[in-house]
Amino acid sequence: MEPLFMKPVFQEKIWGGNRLHTVFGFDLPSDKIGEDWAISAHPHGVSVVENGAFAGQKLDDLWQNHKELFGNPVEPVFPLLIKILDAEDELSVQVHPDDEYGMKHEGELGKTECWYIIDAEPGAEIIYGHHAQTREELAQMIQDERWDDLLTRVPVQKGDFYYVPSGTIHAIGKGIMILETQQSSDTTYRVYDYGRKDASGNTRELHIQQSIDVTTVPARKPELNVTEVKEGNSSIITYLKTDFFNVYEWQVKGELHLRAHAPYTLMTVIDGFGQLSVNGKTYEMPLGTSCIIPNGIAEWVIKGDCSIIASEPGVKE
User: Fold this and answer.
1) Residues in CB range of 223: below 8 A, 6 or more apart
2) What confidence tens digit (pLDDT) does each residue in 35-88 have?
3) Hey, which family's this protein in (predicted)?
4) Average pLDDT, the chain
5) Does some domain include residue 222?
6) Range 128-146 burial, b when 16+ CB lie within 10 A, else e
7) Active-site residue, from 19, 135, 153, 190
């Protein structure tokens, strides 16, 4: 058994740029790339395995036909999606549904997500929550376009972490790069898009009624219980343990020994360079590398000087 390294899937966006090339070294198809879908089985951008016995196979096919790689899961679709986002401009103000609403109205999972801030320009902000106290007030403030009164703006810096449950009004601001761990969903309801027009001169669609339907009112700010465990000069930071996913940062200074705590583990190198050792075999892990540790690999070692965001499926009670 060996790790499954994934080929990136790039998504062009109106707000995208070229820092996935200048920072991560990816060969981009345009200079308006907003997202690297690093690990994905979503039909809008499916990852392909780059190495080993499964080279050339798509992640969604592996999920259906080689369930043993993932601990024989019962879920019909691979539940997680890992992205690196480059916001050269503001993203739309948006909100995502929960699973019940998403399945009923869109035929797919809802979208709870979380963000690790890889980099942020001085003065960069995110929108994270709102000030409406009732759904009626929310609807009225949206109708009146009272965005400064409605939206909560939060300054961010490199290394910050935010949990964004479904129902949270949010937006990533200009000059921010993030690693996003999310449910495997591409359902986004736009509340506001700054009146922008696409390359064809059209304004993008808004989803006002759906946004009002799914937004959590009043807004709730999740409390994080971040913990850190040291191993020599290296450390494991636990950011989240939820029904949807568990998320960690592995800070490697020298080496870090790790064990599986779930049927499979996802990882992406967000800083530096590392080497992954599994069953006596070593794999290079340069900046931007993403892979899955499949079921059957109980332990592994990472050496080098790097930071990795890792995740695993949550356990629903």
Assistant:
1) none
2) 999 999 999 999 999 999 999 999 999 999 999 999 999 999 999 999 999 999
3) Belongs to the mannose-6-phosphate isomerase type 1 family.
4) 96
5) no
6) bbbebeeeeebbebbeeee
7) 190
Confirm whether 190 is a catalytic residue.
Answer: yes
281-311 confidence digits (pLDDT tens): 999 999 999 999 999 999 999 999 999 999 9
* Percent of the chain at pLDDT exceeding 90: 94
Is residue 251 located within the same domain as residue 300? yes
Q: State both tokens at 49.
A: 């395995």
* Residue 168 and residue 293 share a domain: no
Q: To the nearest whole percent, how much of the chain has pLDDT over 70? A: 99
Q: Are residues 65 and 191 in the same domain?
A: yes
Q: Is the pLDDT of residue 170 over 80?
A: yes
pTM exceeds 0.90: yes
Domain that holds residue 267: 227-313
Flag whether 21 is marked binding.
no
Whether residue 257 is annotated as binding a ligand: the answer is: no
If one counts the domains in the chain, the total is: 2
Quick one: pLDDT at residue 199? 75
**CATH number of the domain to which 112 belongs:** 2.60.120.10
- Beta-bridged to residue 162, according to DSSP, are 115
The answer to whether residues 129 and 168 touch, using CB atoms and an 8 Å cutoff, is yes
Residue 38's nearest CA partner among 59, 52, 69, 23 is 59
Task: Round to whole Å and give the CA distance between 14 and 212.
Answer: 24
- How far is Cα 149 from Cα 141, in angstroms, rounded to an integer? 8
Q: Is 108 annotated as a binding residue?
A: no
Which residues, at least 6 apart from 146, have a Cβ–Cβ distance to it below 8 Å?
none
Tokens of 234: 């290296």
Amino acid letter at 236? I
